[in-house]
Amino acid sequence: MNRLQESAFPPRKRQKVSEPVLTDEERLLFNLIRSRENIGIWTGDMKRETNLPTTVVNKSLKTLISKNMIKEVTTIQNKGRKHYMAKEFMPSEEITGGHFYSDGKLDIDYINSLKDVCLKCIFMQKVSTCEGCLEWIKRSGVFNTEVTTKQMEEILQTLVLDDEITQMISTGFGEFASISVGKTCYISKSKGGVRGEKKTADLTSFPCFSCQRMTFCSPDGTISPATCVYYQKWLDF
């Protein structure tokens, strides 16, 4: 195409994307909601801060939702209250309850499934860490969604409090040989990795828990599990 032909077809002008047309009240409410970012705001606070009548607030909220500018979110603190947030933000854990909540409700089935899998992992490996459990779960393909480190830490701490597992510090010796010295690890108290079925041996008697020199203990050190009389007696038991 030559220049003469090009001049016959002038370049198209880019059309500007027009912003939604809002009333003063709608714009006031939207700016207030958007200013709260991922926390959002309750309708009662909207009325108090804007001094708008209830009918105007309700009508404006419906308009903003229809224009896809805001969304209603569920809060675990006050499920009966209507809470709104700008569409661009994702609700914070402060109002949703975090990764173990779904639509404002605690996902008990998911939590119990994670507990069962963690116990099985620790039992199969004899001793494991948070990272070890995460890797084991990843390879097993049990869950469709990704399990985070924070989730795993919370599950492991719950199992410790439930007296299902024992939290220990690796000595780097014996069963702990594959885990770095000083690393937090876990041992199962259940038979076959099944919750509720306890072992006859009490692992809480592990001698290192009460040893005042544990921080100085290492496989190659002057103080080590290999020369510890108490540790050997515990293994023989």
TrEMBL record:
Compartments annotated for it: namely: Nucleus
Q: What is this protein called?
A: DNA-directed RNA polymerase III subunit RPC6
Which controlled-vocabulary keywords does the entry list? DNA-directed RNA polymerase, Nucleus, Transcription
PANTHER family annotated for this entry?
A: RNA POLYMERASE III DNA DIRECTED , 39KD SUBUNIT-RELATED
Family, according to the entry, reads as follows: Belongs to the eukaryotic RPC34/RPC39 RNA polymerase subunit family.
GO CC annotation, single: nucleoplasm
Question: Which lineage is the organism of this entry classified under, starting from the top rank?
Answer: Eukaryota, Viridiplantae, Streptophyta, Embryophyta, Tracheophyta
Asked if the Swiss-Prot or TrEMBL record annotates the protein with the keyword Nucleus, the reply is yes
Q: Which organism is it from?
A: Pisum sativum (Garden pea)
